[in-house]
Amino acid sequence: MAAPGAGAPTRLVQYVVVRSDLVHKLSWPLGAVITQACHAATAAIHLHYGDPDTQRYLEELDSMHKVVLGAPDEAALSGLSDALTQAGVSHKLWIEQPENIPTCLALKPYPKETVQPLMKKFKLFK
Q1: Cα–Cα dist 49/37, whole Å
Q2: What's the whole-model pTM score?
């Protein structure tokens, strides 16, 4: 007998990591920071639109799953971006222009178990 859930499609998740210092130390308005996360998430979907996981994620329009995490500062965000690149994880580092400030990043949709180990040190954004 198959294990419960065997053969069931894997839950896809899109991780978004936002610099929490933008709100808590640099006094950016919360709406401006949310906008940065929206830009990054949209850009990651656009860049990887043809990817099978992205297509399946978009087919589940009413049950999309995102996890928004906080990076303490620019160095932590840039370090995560480097680690993701080294691990071959597709993502978009959003750099706000014209200020040229890295504000957040978003992964393309992935099965949660594929990328969660890389995200463990980051907590939910507050």
Answers
A1: 18
A2: 0.90
Contact 108, 45 (CB under 8 A): yes
CB 28: neighbour CB atoms within 10 A?
Answer: 18
pLDDT of residue 6: 55
Q: Determine the 3-state secondary structure of 21 from DSSP.
A: helix
Helices 112-119 and 74-86: crossing angle in degrees, nearest 10, is 140
Question: Which residues have C-beta within 8 Å of that of residue 54, sequence separation ≥ 6?
Answer: 45, 48, 108, 109
Considering only CA atoms, which of 67, 65, 92, 87 is closest in space to residue 77?
Answer: 92
Query: Which tokens in the block code for residue 21?
Result: 């210092």
Asked whether the beta carbons of 94 and 39 are under 8 A apart, the reply is: yes
Neighbours of 113 (CB within 10 A): 10
